[in-house]
Amino acid sequence: MSTGEGTRAVRAGLPEARKYEPTLPGPVFAAHYHLPGEPTGPYTYGRDSNPTWTLLEQAIGELEAPGETGVETVVFASGMAAVSAVLLSQVRAGDVVVLPDDGYQALPLVREQLEEYGVEVRTAPTGGDAQLTALDGAKLLWIETPSNPGLDVCDVRRLADAAHAGGALVAVDNTLATPLGQRPLALGADFAVASGTKGLTGHGDLLLGYVVCRNSASAARVRHWRKVVGAIPGPMEAWLAHRSLATLQLRSDRQCANALALARALAGRAEVTGLRYPGLPEDPSHEIAAKQMRRFGSVVSFELPDRDHAERFLAETRLVDDATSFGGVRSSAERRGRWGGDAVAEGFIRFSAGAEDTDDLVADVLRALDAAEG
């Protein structure tokens, strides 16, 4: 039966109904299982598999690739564990990997590790599909769209077609968009990768990552990597993540609406420059984003005149947590330059719109901006 996104999110990964059993079984805490005779069957040892992971993996696969056959999902202890699993399981010494040079702050750490293993790494910006210029001879193309924190967008289908024509695999970091914003596999990618810590689970109370693989062969290599390095999620985290999926559409709709309202309000402020939100019709990435995204995400980025101005603004907000990460039901923002590593101005703000009442959130931000001017 064909269903809408909200229905799919509510029911994704649920087991067959059985009398007297819960609709979503509780977390299975087990290091080992009863295993007489030969070690066959789905559950043998806690580092290899867990029934709670299985349900969550089924659920994420249904959201990232509804109706597609052969797709397999592998969950991890964090988003970076998922990122590393793809990059380090699919390439070897002498291969070429193409990364964005404006992506997530920890990507340079992965680059260092790849280069230590003898992998050649090339980089190019996300915007303008600039990674096309670096694809010659590549084994794997890593795309991050929208990019974090600059919110540039690239044409996934165009890049994937070009990469495949040259024999390269394609992985897309879908963290900012979530599967309700875009579906990378439907756009031609071989892997959809994300930090479930962010918008997917949305409550800021767990770390999780996942990789959705187009076929079982690719998934086997990713799953083997997870086993070797032991980057497994705890059963409680997996259960909490699955529970949180039920409200994904509800959260996403409110958060994306808040992000758009906030972006429109910020556009009218003289002290705000460099405003980016793919959902704004005037945003440089809007045309491409509108073709491949169903929602534009909860994150808005902008610049205030300098570091002190940005710090005053953050201190004056009442409904916004000064915190890193994004995608949570409670709005958060940070002066991104405090971490180093991102090519952003000292007054650059990454703002994650939560699920507060829209009028309340916009009013709080505008009031804080007014106070920061003083």
Please tag this protein with its features:
single chain; 374 residues; alpha/beta; 7-stranded mixed β-sheet; 5-stranded mixed β-sheet; 11 helices; 12 strands; 35% helix; 15% strand; globular
Backbone shape? globular
Rounded radius of gyration (Å)? 21 Å
Specify the biggest β-sheet: 7 strands, mixed
Q: What fraction of residues sit in β-strands?
A: 5-15%
Query: Which strand order spans the largest sheet, edge to edge or round the barrel?
Result: 1-7-6-5-4-2-3
Cα end-to-end separation: 58 Å
What letter string, H or E per element, gives the SSE order? HHEHEHEEHEEEHHHEHEHEEEH
Approximately how much helix is present in the residues? 25-40%
Oligomer: single chain
Q: List segments where confidence is low: pLDDT < 50 over at least 5 consecutive residues.
A: none
User: How large is the count of helical segments?
Assistant: 11
Give the rounded overall mean pLDDT: 97
Structural class: alpha/beta
SS elements, strand count: 12
